[in-house]
Amino acid sequence: REKLPQYNSVDDAVALLRRSRRIVVLSGAGISVSCGIPDFRSKDGIYATLMREGKYDLADPQEMFDKEYFMSDPACFFSFAHRIFPSNFTPSPTHRFIKLLEERDVLLRDYTQNIDTLEQQAGITRVLNCHGSFAEASCTNPLCGYSVAGSAIKEDIFAQRVPYCPRCHAPAPPKAKAKAKGKSKGGWNDNDSDSDEAERDARPAGWGVLKPDIVFFGEKLSDKFDRCLFEDRESVDLVIIVGTALKVAPVSELIGHMPHSVPVLLINRTPVLHIQSDIQLLGDADVIVQYLCQRLGWTLPAAPTGTV
Ligand code: OAD
Prior knowledge:
Order of helices and strands: HEHHHHEHEEEHHHEHEEEH
Helix content: 25-40%
Strand order of the largest sheet: 3-2-1-7-8-9
Number of helices: 11
Strand content: 5-15%
Number of strands: 9
Largest sheet: 6 strands, parallel
CATH superfamily of the domain at 1-37 and 90-131 and 221-308: TPP-binding domain
Shape: elongated
Structural class: alpha/beta
CATH topology of the domain at 1-37 and 90-131 and 221-308: Rossmann fold
Bound molecules: 2'-O-acetyl adenosine-5-diphosphoribose
């Protein structure tokens, strides 16, 4: 993707913001750092902290969000989840900037990779939580389909307990006892054959657990992501990438789906070298968006109070 050097200054960023009517925002963990939520890959981020603490039995910190690892040891994730569960955080000026774009009716969509639901708290409605969120939790048995609001497992999360699906999870009976009585016990059914029991024993530890609807590594994004890209590419006139290292596909490939002529504005603390942006504003996102607003004569909406 060749970029012509037609835009390159803060003045150009201001002019683009003034004229654009269909803005796609792609945001990541960097926009919630000032709210007190660490990002993933910075030196004080979640991954470095996990490795430094060495509390969890992980060969690679990304395993904390890996579906296969979760299925083998769900207790590991639930001993950690309380640390990232959305609680008393207030949206940052950058969240409020995105809300302001929506209020000005120029936000086509906010594709966020964040799971902290601060977009919802900021009142942004044209948002797609590409990596899901804690708003709901679902049974890991794909044939079960049981789903609850995230608040229903909040107590388990803070007690660092694995929440089980009430519909399909029941622990296998102790073998010796069940055999001695000539039938199985424990909520499956009384006609269990040895092969049923063997199948049950072969199930991973994470089977029948209520897992928050966060997209883990090894899981697919919702089809809505593809549908939105398909729709938005027709009319987008500016892409703003903010607070993300863009290391995780398919979200990292978003700009490849947008028309090549659409300008890309990057606002990030560190450069993102593997993408071709037209303007890079490097620094603290909150400081940058507040400066842009000042130049544009725009006022950020007030910080909301309370949690969603
Ligand atoms: P990363 O931690 O990979 O990247 C955050 C980016 O934000 C870095 O480039 C930082 O330099 C930048 N940053 C940090 N603080 C900032 C600030 N105050 N102002 C501006 N920029 C700042 O986080 P993401 O790119 O969001 O996925 O990570 C993407 C995905 O990787 C996450 O959704 C998560 C993770 O594995 C899953 O868990 C599935």
